[in-house]
Specification:
alpha+beta, globular
């Protein structure tokens, strides 16, 4: 049958035997996810592609492991500035540890690093990989209710307070303007 969404559900679908390094190749996306998940000891996991950036610069997968739970895997081409990834992940760790907010927990690779490098055998260069613990929830597409806006506002206020007290990690640069469309719009990034 036709595959409408890229996914791999083990053990029914085996590992990709070869994948051409070309944009838009389903086999290439599967190979990148498999190579990245090996860095985290998640070879038994199943995954589904959630989002793909232009020219596969960023691939985002939902990952489910029968033994370790659900995760979000981000795979970046090397063009993404790595110096911004590590401070971002350290900041998430600090927020999780020190604040009563639900934030995505960065999961270290098997070597202990927060940002790993993975490469299928056919690839000419590796990609950066980040694994985050999945946060349950749902995306509100309808009009935001006053209660939802109040909750979102209280979370933003706590983040502001935390930044005033502790600052933002050195090297962390926010690449976007945090306006209504970037936070709540149709093109909201999946973290």
């Amino acid at each position: 049958g036709k595959i409408t969404r890229l996914s791999r559900w083990l053990p029914t679908m085996g590992r990709a035997k070869s994948a051409p390094e070309q944009h838009g190749s389903q086999d290439a996306r599967v190979s990148w996810a498999e190579a990245a998940l090996e860095q985290y000891g998640l070879r038994d996991a199943r995954f589904t592609l959630l989002k793909e950036g232009p020219d596969q610069r960023k691939l985002v997968f939902r990952v489910e492991s029968p033994t370790r739970g659900r995760f979000l895997l981000r795979v970046y081409k090397l063009a993404r500035h790595s110096e911004n990834l590590v401070p971002e992940l350290l900041w998430l760790q600090a927020l999780q540890r020190e604040m009563p907010l639900s934030v995505a927990e960065p999961i270290p690779a098997t070597d202990g690093s927060l940002v790993s490098y993975a490469s299928p055998k056919w690839a000419s260069e590796p990609r950066r990989c980040v694994l985050l613990r999945w946060l349950p929830g749902k995306r509100e597409k309808a009009d935001m209710t006053p209660a939802n806006l109040s909750l979102a506002g209280s979370h933003v206020a706590r983040l502001h307070r935390y930044c005033e007290q502790h600052g933002v990690p050195e090297g962390l640069v926010f690449p976007h303007v945090w306006d209504w469309n970037w936070v709540f719009g149709e093109t909201v990034p999946l973290w």
